[in-house]
Every structure is written in structure tokens, then in C-alpha cells.
Design a protein that fits this description.
mainly alpha, 9 helices, single chain, about 65% helix, about 270 residues
């Protein structure tokens, strides 16, 4: 990971990770400026998603899904702003909790209306609790990444099943997978080739150099990909409940699903 060059208002970093963006370059008050502000893509879209979900009367699970993404965005904001260990947990642990909610939504897409799968919910809660307990003891980001990756793999497999065997929305699946997958590739490039990325950044004009902040781009792609994943889950669920869904995107980038009242269902 990248070394610390400057100490700002938050003091010496205590987090177990320090990313490739140089610290306190843009301002004394934010450790990693671009990695911080890029989290707006994980804050504002799910906030609008919550608003639409409440307005359309969606099941509480989808409100919780959007809330989970929003909390991850806020946690990531504070983590990159401070590089403190407590804020790192505020970022990383909600990633586990939110993805458990996403997985529950997808796995329960064909359940009766207003039903609850208590065994599945209990299993996912136990997974989240055990992961939290072990991570607090192990304090190794690789453990968190493995636990999170397991959940994401479960999401991907469920989406593939729904597209292949239930003939559901290939476009949303492709958008979510390609966007999130692109972000994951960028995240790895930033981690593995940090010295090369920094060298390139140092040769670029100051107004172009931010484009090379690859971890910030990961936030953008991960936020949009996760937003599309939740939209996929909503459309899948309400197709089963025979409610008409309108899938649209703001600026052809941020996907949303609006669910029509039941009396308008086709």
C-alpha cells in the first residue's frame, strides 16, 4: 500500500489500509480527497432509491437494501477522509451487512407477498455476525475481502440463474455485472500497479491527473453496479407479484425501477 507523505487534521493513519492516492494533497482536512468525494455515487443514488421505494410502496427489504448501500457510501467517505481504523470498520462491515440484504432480496424474489424467510434471514445474520467477530479478532483486510467476495459470488450466481432459467432482464444483469466487474478490475490495477500509476499521475497536468485516481473510479463503478443490482432485484420481485415495472436510468447511467400500483398491473 502507498506510504504516508503528510499528516493532516486527523493525525497519523491507524487503518490497516492506505490507498494509492497521496494523503492530504488537496486539503489539510481530507486524507484522500478523490477517494472521499467519489462516494457521492454510493450516497445520492440510493437516497433517491429509498424515496422511490417509499413512494411506490415497495417491501421493506428494498428500502433496507438501498439504505445498506447508502451507509457503505457514508462509511467509505469517513474512512477515506480520516484513514482511521474505526472509520475503516464503518466502511467495511456495512459492505457485509448490505450485501446480505441484497442476497436475501434476490433469493426471496419468488416468495409469496408479505412473506418472510426466517431461516434464510437467520443464516445471513449469523454469517454477518460471525464475519464481524472474526474480523475484529483477525484484523486482516484479506479476511474481509474473502467474506465479501463470497457474498458477491452468491449474488452473481443467483442473477445468472434468474436470467438463464427465468428469462429475466438480461440488460440489467449485463449492466450491473459489467459496471461492477470493470470497477473490480480498476481496483486491482490500483492495488497492484500503484507505483506505476503514481508515476504516470506525476507526469500529467494537474487538471488531468485526477483521472488516474483509480480507487475513486472503483467507488463510481461499484456504486452504479450495486444500484443496478438492487434495481434487478426489485424488477425481478415485482414481476413475480405481477406488478408492472418501469426500468429507466438517469442520464442513461444510474438505473432506477418504478413499480406501478397493483391495479395497473398487466
Amino acid at each position: 500500500m502507498a506510504p504516508v507523505e503528510t499528516v493532516g487534521i486527523w493525525g497519523e493513519p491507524t487503518s490497516t489500509l492506505d490507498w494509492c492516492e497521496r494523503n492530504y494533497v488537496q486539503t489539510f482536512y481530507i486524507a484522500e480527497f478523490w477517494n472521499t468525494v467519489s462516494n457521492v455515487f454510493m450516497i445520492f443514488p440510493p437516497a433517491f432509491g429509498i424515496w422511490f421505494a417509499l413512494k411506490d410502496g415497495l417491501e421493506r427489504r428494498f428500502i433496507m437494501a438501498f439504505l445498506g448501500l447508502l451507509v457503505v457510501g457514508v462509511g467509505s467517505w469517513f474512512f477515506h477522509m480520516t484513514l482511521l481504523y474505526e472509520m475503516q470498520l464503518f466502511d467495511e462491515l456495512p459492505m457485509i451487512y448490505g450485501t446480505c440484504v441484497f442476497l436475501y432480496c434476490l433469493l426471496e424474489s419468488n416468495s409469496p407477498e408479505k412473506s418472510h424467510n426466517y431461516p434464510l434471514g437467520t443464516f445471513l445474520c449469523l454469517y454477518a455476525a460471525i464475519t464481524t467477530f472474526c474480523y475484529l479478532l483477525i484484523i486482516n483486510p484479506l479476511f474481509h475481502q474473502a467474506a465479501y467476495g463470497t457474498l458477491v459470488t452468491g449474488l452473481l450466481l443467483r442473477m445468472i440463474y434468474c436470467v438463464k432459467y427465468e428469462g429475466f432482464s438480461k440488460s440489467l444483469f449485463l449492466f450491473s455485472t459489467l459496471i461492477y466487474g470493470t470497477g473490480f478490475i480498476i481496483w486491482n490495477i490500483d492495488n497492484i500497479f500503484c507505483p506505476n500509476v503514481r508515476s504516470l499521475r506525476d507526469t500529467l497536468p494537474v487538471y488531468v491527473a485526477p483521472v488516474t485516481q483509480l480507487h475513486a473510479w472503483w467507488h463510481v463503478f461499484a456504486g452504479l453496479g450495486t444500484q443496478a443490482n438492487i434495481a434487478f432485484g426489485i424488477a425481478l420481485r415485482y414481476k413475480f407479484l405481477k406488478r408492472k415495472c418501469i426500468i429507466w436510468s438517469h442520464g442513461k447511467v444510474i438505473p432506477f425501477v418504478r413499480v406501478c400500483p397493483s391495479e395497473h398491473a398487466e
